[in-house]
Design goal:
This protein has about 260 residues and is α/β, with parallel strands linked by helices. The protein has a single domain, classed as 5-stranded Propeller (L-arginine/glycine Amidinotransferase, Chain A). It is built from 7 helices and 12 strands. The longest helix is centred in the first third of the chain and has 17 residues. It is globular. The mean pLDDT is about 95. It binds arginine. Arginine binds next to loops.
């Protein structure tokens, strides 16, 4: 995770970001700290990367890389406003403990667009990550990659429209995907939890599951009920301040898989 010390909305690269709308650094920081405490309380080992002044979106650590089997593919951002974040991730992972660390060749926004199920990698495109990045990820990690196309600009990253709950379980908002991708998803995950638009619109799918507890934005009340019915324990988090930049629980969290 990355402390939102320098968080702000100073530019707009997704429909949520309005630089004319004021942000509160104190509220953002307090909300983020509660998320940190929630993860620690659930028993997770949380590592931190140092925030960099002038990189206000760096709080969204999910975008920094994809980490799987101890291998690290560091992001290449689409927008110039975020490009310098990659250097911090290269440096952080370069400190050791990882078998391979390299930066993606094609535009690749890390776990914003690449989500790992048990065996395969679900890969988003349409707004941010380049479709060529899907092939690059397949080769780099040697895992099957399922390409999915996003069509609603509010859900510009895969992790705003879909969350992996367990090895073979996901939840998603069908309206965020092209008809073809919707068909792929319903074939691959016939028992998926399907989110209503109201829950997707408060970023309810931007959630993090450990297989049992699912931390998700508190506003997604309907999704919390669906999760409980499916046997999960929903844990609400308030990240409304960071949502002004188009991010929430999952965006703040990069998973480190050894
Ligand atoms: N303002 C950031 C951007 O548009 C938000 C990133 C959210 N991160 C995510 N994993 N969806 O790039």
């Amino acid at each position: 995770m990355c402390n939102p010390m320098y968080f702000d909305v100073t530019y707009s690269i997704n429909p949520w970001m309005d630089p004319d709308r004021p942000t509160s650094p104190q509220t953002g920081l307090a909300q983020w700290k509660r998320l940190f405490d929630t993860f620690v309380g659930l028993g997770h080992d949380v590592r931190l990367i140092e925030p960099v002044p002038g990189l206000p979106d760096m709080v969204f650590a999910a975008n920094g890389a994809i980490v799987l089997d101890g291998k690290v593919l560091v992001a290449r951002f689409r927008h110039p406003q975020r490009r310098d974040e990659s250097a911090s991730y290269l440096e952080w992972f370069g400190r050791g403990g990882w078998s391979t660390v390299q930066q993606a060749e094609h535009v690749n926004e890390g776990e914003g667009d690449f989500l790992c199920t048990g065996g395969e990698i679900l890969a988003g495109t349409g707004f941010r990550s380049d479709p060529r990045a899907h092939d690059e990820v397949r080769e780099f990690f040697g895992r099957p990659v399922i390409s999915l196309t996003l069509v609603d600009p509010r859900f510009y990253h895969l992790d705003t429209a879909l969350a992996v709950l367990g090895d073979n379980e996901v939840m998603y908002y069908p309206g965020a995907f092209s008809p073809q991708s919707r068909a792929v998803l319903s074939e691959r995950f016939p028992d998926a939890i399907l989110a209503e638009e109201a829950d997707a619109a408060v970023f309810g799918l931007n959630a993090l599951s450990d297989g049992r507890n699912v931390v998700l934005p508190r506003g997604a009340a309907g999704l919390a009920v669906q999760l409980r019915e499916a046997g999960y324990d929903p844990v609400g988090a308030d990240l409304t301040e960071l949502l002004k930049a188009g991010g929430s629980v999952k965006c703040c969290t990069l998973e480190l898989r050894e």
